[in-house]
Each structure stands twice: as structure tokens, then as C-alpha cells.
Amino acid sequence: MSTEPTEDPTEDTGAEVVPIRPGEIVPAPGDPGIDLGEAAPTRDPIAIGYTRTDAGRRPVIPDHWRGRDNIKRTLARIGEHHWYKARYHGLRSPAYLAKAVTWAAWGVCLLVWAHLQWWWVSESHHLRSLAVASGDSKEWRNLHNTGRETRRTRGIMLAVEAAALATAGVAMAKYAPWWGWAALALVALPVLARIGRPEDKPIITPSVLPAEIQPPTPDVIVRALGSLGIAAINAFIKEGTPWVFPSPVREDGPGWRAEVDLPYGVTATMVIERREQLASGLRRPLGAVWPEPVSSEHAGRLEMWVGKADISKAKPQPWPWLRVGNADVFQQLPFGTDPRGKRVDVPVIEHNWLMGSMPGQGKTNAVRVLACGAVLDPIAEPWIHELKGERVRRSRSAGAGESPVCVGHRRRVDRLRGRVAVDAAPRGDGPHRADQEAPPRAVPVQEGDQGNRPQAEPAAAPHHVCDRRVPEPVCAP
What we know:
The chain is an alpha+beta fold. The chain has helices at 68-91, 93-119, 125-134, 137-175, 178-196, 210-213, 218-226, 231-239, 268-272, 275-282, 363-375, 407-417; strands spanning 244-251, 255-261, 289-293, 301-307, 333-337, 343-346, 381-382, 385-386, 422-424, 441-442, 445-446, 464-466. It has three domains: 93-196, no CATH class; 211-307, Threonyl-tRNA Synthetase, Chain A, domain 2; 333-466, no CATH class.
């Protein structure tokens, strides 16, 4: 029995392995391969959602058109501006009419002179002079003959034009009504005045200063930033590198807002610290320039708001609750406005407010705004201590043993609430309410400049209960 040698399957024969079916993976000889199990089912591509923030996006509705109060203020500001322009130009309209008639008459003269120059072919005078100077009689004769033919043709055209104008004038004088002449003057007067008026002498003067109506352009902003004395900004301007404005200059309330990316290494804080120099570079009042950082972006982005007028000279806005409003001490109370004219609300509950400044700078008014907002809440019990001694008097209607009350503040509260009568409780009963719940207490304290300290409320402090069950503020001596 003979034995034939068998081929070792692990031996590399150098042959090329070709798959029988396309796409089939054939392991190389001697490679046991990897057991992948069952083929994974095919799936559609999965869309990955990236988180996108609203930073850098402009609001769909601008801030000055959002909300009823903002819309009313914007419309009032636009109406006041156009009403001022109408009054300004209406008063000067006779002078405008006289100027327009004068320049229109001069425009007629210029128009006639232009027609004569066109008819005489005055543009060829220079060429004829050059031909005479060079002694070229043939060239001069050609120019002369050409000019004569041209003058003949243009003369016929001007004669037809003059005849048409004369015919139209006679027809209008005989048949046209008065409003036809008015319509002709309304159309021809501006055209003729524009022809006769020089470029540097406008007929209508602007009603406001240019700085108040023209928004700050990017060139003006770059010039102002270059005047701050920051080395990195000066080098950036000297190199001629273009500046990046993420959003164009746009109107924002009573002013304009612009955003600019500062050069590398320059932060918005560095510009804010030089606000006075920035206002000088923009040629605007200091109270009309308010740079701010953009906290949602990098430290080098600057947001600049430039007002149309100085906020110290602007008309203050009335208190929102002067006539109507819903007061709630657990919510925020209106306190003032920011430089852009937007309302600023502040919290009262679980907060202490300390007003401090030089005399005559508005400490009393600031306290009065918070106190008036608190006393309008029916569940608030205001305790007002006036320790300065300027507005504390005894009420003539009070009993013999009652403490002095703040008559000035009491009258303001009466006017705001529309109260009719006040009943004084007898001394010694203590503060009380119809219900047994303890109300929130707003205690504004005004201390004198001589170092007075707030005194404790006496145990048997008098009180006044109005018809709306709101305790009357008491002024301790």
C-alpha cells in the first residue's frame, strides 16, 4: 500500500486568492479569521444635533418695539421728533419759498445759457485755436465747416423747441385753470431751483444738529478708539488691518448700538475705563456714550451705545404707577431707567437698601420711590422713620398725646391711594389689622447728616387705618 504526500494547508504557495462572490471577505491562507457572528443590520445615518446658543443673534423683535410700554415710548419719541421738524420747517417755509423762486430764476438763466453754448458748438473752440496756433489751415477749415453745419442743425432744433414752448404758454394762458398753473409751478420750481442752486447753499436747513441725527459710522468709531492712547489699538490702525463689526450700527431706543471686536490683547474694560476720552473721540456728550462688555462673548468684544442726547438733559419719564398699576412687594418694584430709557425694577422683600451720596444728590427721592411702591400694596404695612428733622410736624387733627407724623409723605400716600378719610386709633391699642395675618413691613429710615441713629418704635405707637385697611405710615421723632 503506497502513501501519497498530502499538501500542508498552512504552507504559503504564493497563489492569489480570488473571492467567488463580490464583497465576500476571504481570509488569507493560514488565517483562522475573526468570527463576526451575524451581520449587523443596516441603519440609516443618524443626524447629530449640536447645541446652538442665541449668542450673537439679533432679536427678532427689537427691544424698543417689544412690549406695550416700549412701543408707546418709541411711537411718542418718533412723533415728537417729526412734530418738532414740522413746526421748525413750517415757520421757515416762507423763506424757503423765496429762496426757491430766486434760485429757480437763476436756473432759467443758466438753462438758456447752456442752450446757447450747445447751439454755438463752443466745445470746438479749443480745437480751432490749436489749428490756428499750429498754422494748419486745412484742419481749421474742416473744423469751421463742420461747426457751421452743426450750428445750422441745432438752430433749427432750438427754433422748434422755442415755438413749442410759446404755443404751450399761450394755450395755458387761455384755457388752463388756476390749478393747472399751480401744478406746473409745483413741478417746474424744484427742478429749476435745483439747476440754479449751488451745491454749498441748501434751500432747506436741517432742523437738528448733525451729531444728534447721524449715527456713528464705523470710521467714526475707529477714530474714537484710536484716540484712547492704547498701544495695541494704535498699532492695529497703523497696520491697516480691517476692523470686525459683528453687527452693523443700528438704532436702539433713543440712540444707536454698535458691537466691535477689539484687537488681540485689548479688553472691553480697558475701553470702559477711558469713557471720557471715548466720548471726546465721538464728539458726543459724556452722558450719551455708554460702552459695555458683551458677557456672552469673549473679553475683547465691546458693545457701545451712543445716545442722541445727554441723559442728564433728557426729559425724565413719569413713574409707571403714578396713575394706574399693580403693586406687589413680593415682586420687583419700578425704581428708575437705564441710560437707554428702559425701565429698571428692583426687589424689596428680603433685601435691604442703603442710599448714600453727597447732600442734594437724590437720596430722599430714591427712598421715596421705593416707599411709594411699597405702600401701594394693600398687604404691606409701612413704618417710615424721618430722623433728619426737616419734614416732621405734629398733625393738627391728632390727639394731645400722639407722636408727630410725616405730613408730607402722608399727603403723597393719600393722593396715590385716592383715600377720602382717615380714622385715628386710640393710643395704646397698638398696630392691628382686620385679619390676624402678619403683614410685610417696609421700613424706610432717613437719617440726618448730624449722625442721628434710628430710634426704636415705641410699644404703644399710634397708627392710622385707612378705608382700604392699610396702616398709615408713622414717623417717629
